[in-house]
Every structure is written in structure tokens, then in C-alpha cells.
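$ fold --in a.seq
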Amino acid sequence: MKKIIYQALPRLWGHGKFSDWDRTEFDYLLSLGVDYLWLTGVPRHATGRDFVKGNPGSPYAVTDWFDVNPYLADEPERRMEEFDALLQRAHAAGLRVLIDYIPNHVAPDYEGAIRRFDWYDGDWTDTRKNDWSSPETRAAMLEILRFWASRGVDGFRCDMVELVPADALGALISAVRADFPDLFFVAEVYQKDNYRRYLDEVGFDLLYDKSGLYDTLRAVCCHGATARGITWNWQWLGDMQPRMLNFLENHDEQRLASPEFLGAARKGYAALACSLLFNTASFLLYFGQEVGEDGIDGACGRTSIFNWCDPPELRELWRSLHGLSKLNRDEAGVLRRYRALLKYAVKPAFAEGGTWDLTYCNETAPGYDPDRHFAFVRFDRKHAWLVACNFSDTAAELELTLPAELPVRHPGSICATVPPFDVTILPL
């Protein structure tokens, strides 16, 4: 069943404290249909050292796996209590919480049982590679996951898992689930040929589909690639599709509204509809995306994970939730559009129903351009919806054929008017 995950860096939300995550925030997330809150940057990372990138530094250079960042607490000496209280508030509101698990590396100043090499991968100069051949490392990793699970963390977004032994990760997940069977594991995986292994053998619940749907949609939106690629990726995934995690933004990727991506949030509505609604895959929403955060305050269209920054649309979102100001017209318009599409995502036909791609029977349909348009039906036993996406910069007048084999009652054809870069959703 489709799940909605909301990723946020707590140091950039509100006043940057655990205490900022209260009933107001949780009610807002629930109004979007969110199931899991993924808090990035909770375990204590390196800061104030000469090897640290930026200030306060990267959440992915952990220096103490059994601590949280003091700067996130109102009273640093009580920081673990404050994090525990956040978990309790989230659970009381009906939300579950994920944090990052980083198996590949730690900070150079890490002190603990994980064995490591004196080198790093790529350009991650603020880290050192973990030695998974060491029994001490494998034992420490199990202790780490048990520590956070015992505090009430509901699951983990697992960083760069393809850089560590898959069999060791599988054994780790199996061992921790022996004590915490409901733990939820999301994997950052990029090699599509590895998808099946990490799902069926290693035991992850969800995998990033970055190299599949994200790259496909970006190519369609930015580089004129054919929208048929959406069909091809869907067909390739087959029965793995429900265990994918779709997204258009996260901390690694450029903001959708940034000049380096689409330049405006409104140009991403067709891509959003495909990523969110095309199938039962889960969906990741990155904080501020839903009001058009453009990453201009960061680097290369990204909100910085290394430096203190103040993303303007994100700031205004927080202020509006707390009655301190109102979103401007553009921000409010983007949020309304996201809300409307997210409301469809939680309907049974979209959350767990069937999918019927209409491209194959509309190649020559009046007004339909299979390179720039994409249409599909989502359905269950009670309801069916036609979704027509327009990736072009001109409005589309479509006369779509609905095939006889479509397992729902329908009129045979349907007309849809779709604005530029947008989506139209019609009941059947």
C-alpha cells in the first residue's frame, strides 16, 4: 500500500530544535496524508573540526552513533530526553519516525566499536570507510540499530547500501527484526540490476527508484525525452513496483523549482502526478517542496546539508503554520495544488488499486502526443479515475480511447483538457 514519507532536516525547520516538532507540525503533515516523518541529521555528526564540510557539517559524517546533535536541543544536556519526547509526540499524533542509518562510513573523529579504514569513498573527505569484514563492526551495527529501535524509532533510511556487503546487511536486518519485527527499512540504491536482490534477499521494504522513474521524469521534463519512458520503466519493474519509493526531490537532488531544474514549481505538476499517482509505489516529499522552495540560498539548486541556511519558502511555510504570517500567492497556490494531488493519493484506488497505462491504445488518438503526454487509469472495485499528464508548454485537448479490456465500466472514450505542465484527473 502506498505510503507518504516527509523528509526534513530539523536544524532548518522553525528554530532548529526538536521542540519545534509539535502538534501543529504533525497536524499539518497528517493533512497532507503523511505516514512517516524522516528526520535527517539526528545522530551526532562531526562539527567544528578542520575536516568538516561547512558549518555545522554533514549529517552523514557521524561521530557518535549513541548520541544526538546537541544543537537540536533547547537544553543540550537533556538532548536525548528531548528527542524521546519528540518521538512520543509524533506517535501520539499517529505518525511514525525514520532516521538515517549510514553503514558505509563514519566521521574521522568517530570513537566507537566500528572498525574503519584510513580512506574514504569519492569526495567524502569528511568520512572514513567502515570495515565490514570485521566482526566488531557487524556487532556494533546491530547494537546501533537496536539502540534507536528501543527508543521508539520506527525505521531507517539506509544510506548508500551498495557500498557495503549485501549479505551482511541482510543478516543485520534479519537480526534486528527478531527483536523489532515492525521496523521499516528504506534503501538508497542506484543500480537497477540490484533492485531484486535488495528487496528479496536483503529484506528492504522500499528502494529509491532514482535510476528509474526519477531519471526518466527529469529527462522528459528537462531534456525532451519521450514520455514513453514512463511506460518502459513501469514494465521493467513489474512486480517490484509497489516496493519502490518515488520522489522528485530529496537532500541529494536539486529542488524542482530551482533554476537548475524546472525554474518554477508549476512546471512540475505533470511529473508530480506521475510520481505520486501512477502506481502503488510510495512517495517521498521533501520539506518545502510543497510550497515551491527553490534552493537558491544553497548550492547548485540544493538546500545545503552542510551549512546553516534559511530557505525562504520553507521559513514562510513554518511561519504560516504558526500564524505569524501568510504564504504569498505563489506559495499558497503551489500548496493548494500539492494538497489536491495528495488527496487523490490516499484514495483506495490510488493507494492500493490497479493501474492501466493508456499509451498503447492512444498512439494516434486526436491531440495525443505520446512523447509529451501520458495517460493512465487507476481503479479498484468501486471507483476509477483517468489521469492525463501534459509535459508540454501548450494546453492539450485529448480524445482518449479506453480499451474494452479495461476491467472497469467506462464510456469507451473520454475527452480531457490539460493545461501546460499540468494534469487533469477525471472520474470514470
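$ fold --in b.seq
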Amino acid sequence: MSELRITTDLRSSPHLKQTVSVPQIMRNVVYALLPVCAWSVYAFGISVLLLLITTTLTCMLSEALFCRLSGKPSSISDGSIAITGLLLALTLPPGFPLWMAAVAAFVAVGLGKALFGGLGYNVMNPALVGRAFVQAAFPVAITTWSPPFLPGRFSEVIPSTLTAPFMKPVPIEQWVEQQSIDVFTGATPLALQKFEQIITPWPDLLTGTIAGSAGETSALIILLGGIYLAARKMMDWRLPVGVMLGAVIVSLPFWLLDASRYPDPLFVLLSGGLMLGAVFMVTDMVASPVTPLGVWIYALFIGMLTVVIRLFGGLTEGVMYAILLGNAISPLISLVTQSKIFGERQKP
């Protein structure tokens, strides 16, 4: 009788059907960001293009420097540092001085990433760390806005863009007058609502025909980028949905209570940097929780805190601080929401 042998191939979990590398994920995030960058350049002109180039190149050079100093192989090729540079530029005003943008990029990589050990170890979103630094260091420049769609935006730069270090730029109002613009308040939709109770029409917010940071103008393009990443399964859709839900939960009661004073939920979602933060920053795989329940808690916390800061804080925008605080408590959320091991006994 012949011997029947059955060979089984037993392997431990997880049983992955396909593998997606870090460079592949980062490359797709860049793809999703490119339309946002393109619209920003179209709306504000050469100044934003120079801003994007400056922050991205500075981030790459800083990454190479810190990798060399720490004796680690360069991680520029994985694409993560390019995302940091692009996101940082999109959070800055269109006419932000380039030398300040370079400082922000260096701080983003040094304090936001290299200090914690590099890719995969950063506690907070590096782009927001750099943005928070320049907001504290250069409060006037970070709150100076330019109108979109100026006729000469492709033939000349905003004067403040090429301002020399520690020199005073040409006032934006004076330059706007030379562009044949009759009325420009210099205020973003959030500032108009907070201080003058003027609500910008939602179609303008959706399409991005308003003043603001380079990447906070077109909510529609940002949403399309998020849908692309979610469809490719390279983004946890619960994170942006949770942020938006948290923003609605807080804003809706106040709007129903006094619509003349508080903005409606749709305005809250489409204005400012909430959409950009929800889709491209809150979804940072390193800084967000790893448990299903923790993801919802984390996202809801950021969305709710954003609206609280907007309505009751001294600043018009609260997305940056809400995300950074969410990053800070993310490890605690993951720890508290960990599932109990089967058969584990509770410690006395």
C-alpha cells in the first residue's frame, strides 16, 4: 500500500492577500494632494507655486541632513517628507514670506519628526508642528491674507513673498490697489463670521473662491482627494467622517439656539482648514489611534474641539490646535480602548 502524504502550509496571522508598501501609500497621498495644490496655484498664482517649492525642498534637505546626523539611511525616497512639505505650504497664507516658510519646514522636520526618531515615530503631525511654530514666531505674517484670482497673479508675485529676512513687506492693501481691486477687506470667511456675523455663501466655500490659506479654499477638491484615498483603502474613512460629525454635533445646537450669532453646520464644515485637516492630517497613520473605538473617539474629539475654539476662543481657526492636542492624547486613547485579551484576568 502506497503511503499518502498531505502537505499543509500553516502560517501565522495576519493572512494578507496583498501588500502595500509605505512608498505606495505616500505616492497616492501625493496624487490626492496635487489637485489641491494645482487649484491653489491657479487661484493665487506664482507666489503659491514658490511657497510649495520652498517648503518641499527645505523639508527634503532637512530630512537628508537629520538622517545623516543620526546615522540612518535617507528616507526621502518613501515620499513622506514630500507630503509634509506640501501640507505645510497649504496651511500658510499665499503671500507668506519664503524665508519664513523655510524656517517652518526646517522646524517641521527637526522638531516634528527627527526629534522623535523619524518616520513612524513622530507623535504629532510634522507639518502642523512647523505651522504652529511660525504662528507663534510670526503672528502678523501668518494672518495676512491675499485675495484670489487677481489679474496679475501669474506675471508677478505677492510683494511679501520675496521679503528679505526681518524686513517689513509692502502692505498687502497697497499692492491690491495696484491690481485694480476696488474692495478687499483682508478677512477670511471665518473672520467675517466671527467678528462681523457675515456668512460667506456655501458655493464660494465649496469651490474655493475666497481668501484664506493656500489649501483651505476649495472644499470640493479636498473631498474628492479623500474619496480617492478611501476608495484605494489608503485612508481610514472613519477619521474624516468622525471629525465632520464632531463638528456638526457641537455647531448644530448653537446655530439652532441663535442663528444670527453662530454659523450653521454647513459653513463650519466648508470654511477654514477643517476639510484639509480632516482628510489629510487627522488621517496620519502614525499619530492616530489603532483601535476601532479609539479612531471614533479621536476624530470626534478633534471635530468638537475645533468648533469650540472657533466659537469661544480668541482665534478664528482651531483646526491646527485641535489636531495637535488630538495627536498628544492619541496614545492614551489607544491604551484605554484596547480590547481585553481572551481569558485575561483583571489585575487587583
